[in-house]
Amino acid sequence: MANLEKSGHLDAVVTTNVDYLHEIAGNTKVADIWYSFNQNYCTKCGHEFSIDILNQAGVPYCPICGGLISPGPTYHHIGTSKPAIQNAIDWMDQADMVIVIGSNGYYDRINDNVPLVQINPASTEFDRKAMLNIRANADDVLNNYVN
Ligand SMILES: [Zn+2]
Fold first, then answer.
1. Would 42 disulfide with which of 5, 67, 96, 133, CB 3.0-4.6 Å?
2. What spacing in Å lies between the alpha carbon of 47 and ligand 1's midpoint?
3. Which residues does the record give as Zn(2+) binding sites (predicted)?
4. Is 122 part of any known ligand binding site?
5. Whole-number Å distance between alpha carbons of 107 and 143
């Protein structure tokens, strides 16, 4: 995915993954709609910290007030990030094409006028919307045909 962005073929990533791996791989425009481990919050004062706060030895505590630090997905109880949701909606509305990879169809907010390609070995709710269904694992498709 990062290679697609670097080559100018991918504008943005919308994900329910919370692992921050898209950003670590090099994607710069990512909507982490369930938050990510790069969004960490003090349980006492609410201050937000990047993933670097987790590099402390032992349990991470807030350098401002001493409160316990909680990763965003846990702090928000797997809630949705309103700014990330808005980015996802805006980006998908402006997209020339949307590629749905490995999703089970839970997040179904894609403009009907935007061509949809799905990469998934299984049948999903996106089958009927997709102009192309590639029945394969994302790793196989992206590693063999994109790089
Ligand atoms: Zn604090």
1. 67
2. 6
3. 42, 45, 62, 65
4. no
5. 25
Q: Which of 75, 98, 124 lies at the terminal end of a domain, its last residue?
A: 75
Task: Please indicate, yes or no, whether residues 68 and 139 belong to a single structural domain of this protein.
Answer: no
103 is in an annotated binding site: no
Query: Same structural domain for residues 90 and 128?
Result: yes
Q: Are residues 69 and 85 in the same domain?
A: no
pLDDT, residue 116, reads 92
- Domain co-membership, 64 together with 113: no
Domain extent for 19:
2-34+80-145
As given in the structure block, the two tokens for residue 26 are: 């090099």
Say whether 62 counts as a known binding-site residue.
Answer: yes
Average pLDDT score over residue span 116-124: 94
Q: How remote is the CA of residue 73 from the centroid of ligand 1, in Å?
A: 17
**Cα(53) to centroid(ligand 1), Å:** 12
**Mean per-residue pLDDT for 21-39?**
95
User: How distant is the alpha carbon of residue 45 from its chain centre?
Assistant: 26
DSSP strand E in 5-142: where?
13-15, 30-32, 40-42, 48-49, 69-71, 98-101, 116-119, 132-134
